[in-house]
Specification:
By secondary structure, the protein is of the alpha+beta class. It is built from 3 helices and 12 strands, in the order αββαβββββαβββββ. It has helices at residues 10-14, 38-58, 118-131, and strands spanning 22-26, 29-33, 61-64, 70-73, 78-80, 84-88, 107-111, 135-140, 145-149, 155-158, 163-165, 174-176. The model has no long low-confidence stretch (mean pLDDT 93).
Length: 182
Amino acid sequence: MAVGRALMTAEDLFNLPEDDMFHELVKGELITLPPPGAKHGFVAGQAFFLIRTHVDAHELGSVFAAETGFKIGRNPDTVRAPDVAFVAAERLPTELPDGYMDLAPDLVVEVVSPSDSARYVQEKVFDWLEAGARVVLVVYPSRQSIAAYRSRTDVRLLGPGDALDLNDVLPGFASPVRSLFS
């Protein structure tokens, strides 16, 4: 009789001791990645700033910074942590939990690091969409481009000369793609 590994829960992940690695939980399996580099951090910071400025000006909800965990699957648990996330005001809990939010953000921004495989990025996108995210932005710093997913088949590729229009999730938001990279 084969004995399998015990799967982790979201609570187990939350109670892991601090280390220098980044962790997510996918269907009960711990995923460990190295900390992202400087370019990744700069682009994620730019995305956070642009989205947060717009959200605050229009009182649309809350924006969450890198490594905020969202519990998007149960039994086995999945906890993903995007680089930037937006949750509309009407979907926010009355009080934010100390642990993970038990919902998918309306908007997810994932900045691709050199260590990220295409398969890993695609799995994250599909996890977010299946959990209910309305838009997932995959940002490629090395190419200065964005893939905007609204579903598995509704994907728009944007280059530095294009405008990023998020009016469907952030009313009134449009920004040049190049603003994320400079």
